[in-house]
C-alpha cells in the first residue's frame, strides 16, 4: 500500500494554454484523477464507495504554482493523505519534473466524506481510515518517495 502515491504523466497538447504552458485547470483534473488512483490502490475504488453509499466531495482546493510545465515534458505527480478528521481529510499533492529535479506546484484539497443519497457529511469509517497511512506536515516527500537523495 503506497503511503505516497506517484503517478507519472506526460504533458499533452490538450492541456496547453495560450501562454504555451499547462493550463491551471489541468492541474485540478490531475489532482482529482490521482486522488482516485491512490484511493483505488488502497482498496477504495469508486465502485466500492458507490456500493457503500458514500463518497468524497471537495470543500476547497489550494494550488501554489512555482514553475510552468510545457508540452511533452515528463512529470511525476505525488499525492498523500495529510490528515483524517471526523468527516474530512486533507490530501496534498506535489508536481515534480524529474528532468531538472524541480517542484512545479504544491497543492492540497480538503475532501469531505458524504452520504451520497443525502449529500450530507458523515463520519469516516475506521475501515477507510486504516487504509491510508498519514504523511505528517513537513516530511520530505521527495526523499521519502526516493526521488531525491537525503
User: Termini separation (Å)?
Assistant: 23 Å
SS field, number of helical segments: 4
**Count of the domains:** 1
Task: Extract low-pLDDT stretches.
Answer: none
Q: What general form does the structure show?
A: globular
Largest sheet: 6 strands, antiparallel
Predict the CATH topology.
Thiol Ester Dehydrase, Chain A
Compute the gyration radius: what is it?
Answer: 16 Å
Q: Bin the strand percentage.
A: 35-45%
> Could you state the CATH homologous superfamily?
Hotdog Thioesterase
CATH class annotation: Alpha Beta
CATH architecture, please? Answer: Roll
Secondary structure: helix percent: 10-25%
Given helix and strand content, the structural type is alpha+beta
Write the H/E string, N to C: EHHEEEEEHH
What's the rounded overall pLDDT mean? 96
Say how many strands there are: 6
